């Protein structure tokens, strides 16, 4: 038998979802059968699969020890450095300025130096993340940014914050503004561009068209020109829809690929600029909650921005030509 005292990060979850995370060796069919046979009890009583856990609950599993014999996992995040550019931090979240070249989660290379591992290591050293006291939660990212794109990433320190922010992002109640340098000049100084985007099979690539296609999704890209020099333009972009590679693919489709982008642009166009990564940065975040945000209401209306984006400064100083 094994019992779990439900803490704040476990609360709100369905019984079956919690057990799947806390007891990964337990087969799903046996989990459901054990609930039916009352081998799994909540506060000494029968529970249902869909019962929601509350802080302070006692969940008891009358099961064989073999399902609990999980070796203590190596804390992989301890192998990552703790270097972070923190824009803002409080008891619920971190806003981190991710630099180009750093992946947010582990990729096929398996290297431990990822943004989330750095954050978990940082919080572990501060005593704010204690894996041995958690049954089903670890600090997690609320949004992602491509390896070679920089900008603001939100990390939740607790499960209630992760839940609220994930819903707010889904409901598009957080505004993210980007800076980018594109080749050429757009006819209009500002506007909203509409097109259709389709993922290209299993490739990490998308295609953009003017007309709908099977599997295609509408994209809306709002922009305004901040500066021009003939060969390039510095623009601010507000994603009204958030699709994979939307900014890069949309402007490339229009004949204005991003400086440094060789996936949707051409290397020959970037010669003499020394830019290895696409000139794209998620530089500003605005919390625009339309409904209640529970314990995060204090964030509503707040704006956070990266103070220095190097390519924007290079552009304004005449170093990009």
UniProtKB/TrEMBL annotation:
Class of enzymatic activity (EC top level): isomerase
Superkingdom: Bacteria
Similarity field: Belongs to the pseudouridine synthase RluA family.
Protein name: Pseudouridine synthase
GO terms of biological process kind: pseudouridine synthesis; RNA processing
Lineage: Bacteria, Bacillati, Bacillota, Clostridia, Eubacteriales
Active site location: 146
Entry EC number(s): 5.4.99.-
PANTHER family: MITOCHONDRIAL RNA PSEUDOURIDINE SYNTHASE, PSEUDOURIDYLATE SYNTHASE RPUSD4, MITOCHONDRIAL
The reaction(s) this protein catalyses: a uridine in RNA = a pseudouridine in RNA
Family matches, as Pfam families: PseudoU_synth_2
